[in-house]
């Protein structure tokens, strides 16, 4: 079954095309390293401008979450070869996770925030 | 399928296993396992997010907790170590893909070489995590705990640097023996008595007027609130317990849940890395023995590769939500 060794060799929607699969792997590594380096630099510097609140979270945290999702996409699509799989497999893995994780994250974070409000505004002291 | 079916010859479609979605049975099952395992980690990380949103104004700041780097003693180096760990894991992921790629081309020696590098990378990562745990459990400054479970940390008001309780606690000989079975107290047990008692720390604190208290609460800018001297004295009087380092019940960094989530999330991930290394070693031995050469394909390397990348993927999320955000 040494089958389908042909890989799709372009990333960024065809902006960068690689000649071989090995070359693509190194290219993706460089990309992931750059993204991680940006994350670490932002985490250390913590620019004042990104501390503003946006949709109940700091702007910098939104950037971290988005960069993480970008990294997750390239690890799954290129390292796990999801790019070469059939559309049906891609969808059955990704949609399931996006739906369940998105739903659970929404429910639990809203609930956590609600409990915070209750404890903050309630008449019981929690700091003793 | 042709319409004329002869009963003597076997149809070629039935000699192979069915391949739904053009993936083999094993690969498909690995993907299903990954989806369910991803949901387990989701449960952990969302529970972490829940507790964090619940205590949004008093959660410990990760940058102040994870400040160690091997070889740099007393240097404040937040994030560098976990960043290094992330690079190690991503790199071992890359060597794994290269092994899979070599497997497609039936190049046994290259598969051996790259799988070996992957195993080394995984082992280094697990070791790094053990070191991280050691620092976390040992702690750095120590703190007092109030009856309500609030952590009281100490700051030198002259230079705003954190103070370790060893720096100022006085030495008062204790009369209290640890309760042990060997002393005839078979009906009760207690953990080893701490090096410092609350009385020793309190007395040292009262003696030096430059020491103030830092609370768990965070101001609008995200810094911990430091009390003035009078408020500090009030707070220290409420202390009932000396905390040094971290375990599942107490930790000196702040909210108790913080250490619990640290142990569970990074521990569960570390366990995945560990089992990944073991599975990698098994497949590595099979490659060495030429099992897959004889079988004619290296799909097992591909399947274990999927698991290994998944472990890397989870770390990317743990890194973000535990250390960055």
Summarize the entry for a quick read.
The complex is a heterodimer of chains A (128) and B (325). With 128 residues, chain A is mainly α.
Can you walk me through this structure?
- The complex is a heterodimer of chains A (128) and B (325).
- Chain A is 63% helix and 6% strand.
- With 128 residues, chain A is mainly α.
- In chain A, the strands form two sheets. Chain A has a two-stranded antiparallel ribbon. A two-stranded antiparallel ribbon of chain A has the order 3-4.
- In chain A, a hairpin with a 4-residue loop joins strand 1 and strand 2.
- The longest helix of chain B is centred in the last third of the chain and has 34 residues, at 256-289.
- Chain B is of the alpha+beta class and 325 residues long.
- Chain B is elongated, with a radius of gyration of 27 Å.
- In chain B, strand 2 (151-156) and strand 3 form a beta hairpin.
- In chain B, strands 1, 2, 3, 4, 5 and 6 form a six-stranded antiparallel beta sheet that branches.
- Chain B starts with 11 loop residues before the first helix and ends with a helix.
- Chain B folds into two domains: 36-139 and 258-324, Up-down Bundle (Four Helix Bundle (Hemerythrin (Met), subunit A)), CATH 1.20.120; 143-244, no CATH class.
- Chain B has eleven helices and six strands.
- Classes of the chains: A mainly alpha (128), B alpha+beta (325).
């Amino acid at each position: 079954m040494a089958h389908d060794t042909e890989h799709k060799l372009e990333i960024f929607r065809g902006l960068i095309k690689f000649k071989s699969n090995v070359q693509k792997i190194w290219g993706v590594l460089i990309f992931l390293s750059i993204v991680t380096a940006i994350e670490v630099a932002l985490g250390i510097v913590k620019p004042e401008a990104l501390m503003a609140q946006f949709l109940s979270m700091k702007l910098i945290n939104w950037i971290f979450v988005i960069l993480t999702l970008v990294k997750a996409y390239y690890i799954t699509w290129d390292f796990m070869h999801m790019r070469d799989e059939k559309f049906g497999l891609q969808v059955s893995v990704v949609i399931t996770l996006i739906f369940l994780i998105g739903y659970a994250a929404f429910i639990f974070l809203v609930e956590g925030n609600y409990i915070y409000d209750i404890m903050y505004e309630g008449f019981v002291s929690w700091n003793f | 399928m042709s319409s004329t079916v002869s009963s003597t010859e076997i149809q070629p479609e039935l000699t192979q296993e069915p391949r739904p979605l053009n993936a083999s049975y094993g690969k498909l099952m690995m993907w299903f396992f990954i989806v369910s395992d991803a949901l387990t980690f989701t449960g952990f990380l969302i529970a972490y997010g829940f507790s964090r949103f619940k205590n949004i104004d008093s959660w410990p700041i990760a940058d102040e907790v994870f400040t160690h780097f091997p070889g740099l003693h007393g240097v404040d180096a937040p994030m560098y170590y976990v960043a290094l760990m992330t690079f190690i894991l991503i790199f071992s992921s890359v060597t794994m893909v290269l092994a899979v790629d070599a497997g497609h081309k039936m190049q046994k020696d290259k598969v051996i070489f790259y799988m070996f590098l992957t195993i080394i990378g995984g082992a280094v990562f697990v070791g790094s995590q053990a070191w991280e745990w050691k620092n976390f459990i040992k702690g750095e400054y120590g703190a007092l705990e109030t009856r309500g479970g609030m952590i009281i940390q100490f700051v030198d008001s002259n230079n705003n640097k954190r103070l370790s309780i060893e720096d100022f606690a006085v030495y008062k000989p204790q009369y209290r023996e640890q309760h042990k079975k060997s002393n005839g107290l078979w009906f009760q047990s207690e953990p080893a008595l701490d090096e410092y008692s609350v009385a020793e720390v309190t007395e040292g604190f009262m003696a030096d007027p430059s020491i103030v208290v830092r609370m768990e609460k965070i101001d609008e800018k995200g810094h911990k609130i430091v009390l003035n001297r009078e408020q500090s004295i009030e707070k220290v009087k409420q202390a009932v317990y000396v905390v040094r380092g971290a375990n599942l019940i107490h930790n000196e960094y702040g909210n108790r849940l913080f250490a619990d989530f640290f142990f569970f999330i990074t521990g569960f991930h570390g366990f995945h890395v560990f089992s990944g290394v073991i599975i990698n070693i098994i497949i590595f031995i099979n490659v060495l023995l030429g099992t897959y050469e004889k079988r004619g394909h290296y799909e097992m390397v591909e399947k274990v590769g999927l698991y290994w990348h998944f472990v890397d993927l989870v770390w990317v999320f743990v890194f973000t939500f535990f250390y960055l955000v």
